[in-house]
């Protein structure tokens, strides 16, 4: 499931760059390539395999996020980061136990069994990976590496790209919302077209 969903944006990016189309055959080939890369990572062990792939991914993602933050709409994004931090501090305690007791707006009911089962299926693998990677670590290092830093990085990533998309849609040329409605995986590459070096950043996003 994860591979199947993951290759869709990769296929969309390659189609955007090379015009190869988005077909079932291409996605199967991409799944095979991803499986081969994962197998190489496992065979080479945690230090030589998984760590190298993780470092490559982290470096590319960081460079892309920094590029998006600095090149366009910097002040708007920084203001949004500050506002979102305040909003989270103010509302997270109240929203955490919220269960629609008094107001039935059906928001929670829209989360399907698909997501629920998907998360449960992933939990043993993630748990074992965290346990292996946390061996000989202190509790402080564990909390920093497993809970605090991933949450912070995810928050910044969503804030940077989400507010960039909002700015383009609200004050720029638009097209992000239309891309999401027509084909979600293409939306990132439509966003990148608003920046210089869009072909390069799109290629790095595919990787």
Please specify the SSE layout and strand pairing:
Layout: H1 2-18, H2 24-43, H3 45-71, H4 74-95, H5 113-133, H6 139-171, H7 176-182, H8 187-192, H9 198-206
Polypeptide structure, described:
Keywords: Cell membrane, Membrane, Transmembrane, Transmembrane helix, Transport. Its main location: membrane. Pfam families: BCCT. It is a multi-pass membrane protein. This protein is mainly α. The protein has a domain at about 50-90 and about 115-205. The protein contains nine helices and no strands. It has helices at about 1-20, 25-45, 45-70, 75-95, 115-135, 140-170, 175-180, 185-190, 200-205. The two termini are about 20 Å apart. About 15% of the residues are buried. The mean pLDDT is about 85.
Features:
cell membrane; 9 helices; 0% strand; globular; transmembrane; BCCT family transporter; BCCT_transptr; 207 residues
What percentage of amino acids are in beta strands? under 5%
Q: Would you tell me the structural class of the helices and strands?
A: mainly alpha
Query: What would the principal axes of the Cα set say about the shape?
Result: globular
Alpha plus pi helix count = 9
First and last CA, distance: 19 Å
Q: Mean of residue pLDDT? A: 84
Helix content range of the residues, please?
over 70%
The SSE string, one letter per element, is HHHHHHHHH
Biggest β-sheet description = none
Low-confidence stretches: none
Question: Quick one: how many beta strands?
Answer: 0
Report Rg.
19 Å
Family: Belongs to the BCCT transporter (TC 2.A.15) family.
Subcellular location: Cell membrane
GO molecular function, one term: transmembrane transporter activity
Transmembrane segments: 60-82, 113-130, 142-162
């Amino acid at each position: 499931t994860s591979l199947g969903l993951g290759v869709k944006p990769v296929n969309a990016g390659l189609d955007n760059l090379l015009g190869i189309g988005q077909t079932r055959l291409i996605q199967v080939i991409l799944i095979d390539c991803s499986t081969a890369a994962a197998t190489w990572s496992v065979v080479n062990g945690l230090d030589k395999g998984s760590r190298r792939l993780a470092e490559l991914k982290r470096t590319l993602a960081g460079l892309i996020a920094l590029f998006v933050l600095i090149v366009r709409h910097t002040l708007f994004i920084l203001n949004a980061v500050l506002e979102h931090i305040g909003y989270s501090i103010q509302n997270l305690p109240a929203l955490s136990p919220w269960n629609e007791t008094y107001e039935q707006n059906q928001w929670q009911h829209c989360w399907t069994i698909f997501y629920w089962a998907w998360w449960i299926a992933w939990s043993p693998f993630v748990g074992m990976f965290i346990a292996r990677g946390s061996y000989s670590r202190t509790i402080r290092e564990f909390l920093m590496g497993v809970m605090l830093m991933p949450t912070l990085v995810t928050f910044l990533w969503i804030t940077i790209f989400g507010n960039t998309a909002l700015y383009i849609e609200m004050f720029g040329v638009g097209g992000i919302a239309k891309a999401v409605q027509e084909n979600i995986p293409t939306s990132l590459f439509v966003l990148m077209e608003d920046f210089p070096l869009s072909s390069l950043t799109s290629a790095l996003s595919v990787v």
